Amino acid sequence: MRNPKKGYWHTGKINQKDIYESVKESKKKDSTISISSVLKQLDVSKSGYYDYINRKPSYTKQRREKITKKVEEIYRNSHEIYGSPKITEMLNQNGEKVSQRYIYSIMRENSWKARYVKPYVQTTISEDFSSRLKNLLNRHFNPSRPDCAWCTDITYIRTVDEGFVYLTSVMDLYSRKIISWVLTKTMETDEVLKSIEKAKERRKVEKPLVVQSDRGVQFTSTKYQEMTEGFVTSYSRKGTPWDNACIESFHALIKREWLNFYKIMNYEEAYQLVFEYIEGFYNTIRIHSHCGYQSPNEYEKNYMLAVTNKNQTTFITNSAI
Q1: Can you tell me the distance from the alpha carbon of 33 to that of 165, in angstroms, rounded to the nearest whole number?
Q2: Which pLDDT does position 316 carry in this prediction?
Q3: CB 3.0 to 4.6 Å from 91: which of 96, 156, 237, 250, for a disulfide?
Q4: pTM for the full model?
């Protein structure tokens, strides 16, 4: 309603703090405004106004400002990929005891959202391969040590000038680390299977392990059988991509968190983007709930450290005996 005496509009009770903030913002926008005359017009105490603007922020406000800066730092460093759950976990790991609800409110207040682009879904029809292709892994996606079970798959990446290029990745299921990958211009078996060669070279595997894949021609070829000799080859069941869910999930992740935000012109640009995401972020920095909110590299490093400490303890114990 309008107050005929004071000449301003209001609805119900006016919050004194809102009046002070309004006057403060008006002064910022127009330095020629007379604070005294405005306060007089609003029938507001001049001493009360100056007491408000000179008042030190409360502990709660100071802490929120501090946390907000840390949230922004983590959010920007994650390439705007992390949402409130991961940011909350990182802050808690660093000694800031905050709830996900609190972090969500800060992110919403600042319009910070975990970026997400729904990936383009390519559907294929599986062919009926021979009965020897068994799903031996049987969705046991959580082995107790590295190099116990790998999974591999191929995905498409669209480029403007050169059509599709193809990313083949090999993942260690213990840490969800991408232990090797190749980007090829064709889906020829020789090119795709270089990812298996690289994985074997990098991991120097001595013990037999399970390698899970789909029933694509590359993974049922004679060359693949030769390259995985001594390994246990396991295959997704016909029309059941969930049998290879972890690597499927990774390929969806790299697209929605990274690739789909770029207009990729050619193979070289695609390669650079894949390299930056896998080697510069996913394996080394990106925290995973599966890994106890550690990066895959850190998760494997801690495993090896635990094994070393256990062996040293056993050696000392046996020596004492």
Answers
A1: 62
A2: 58
A3: 96
A4: 0.65
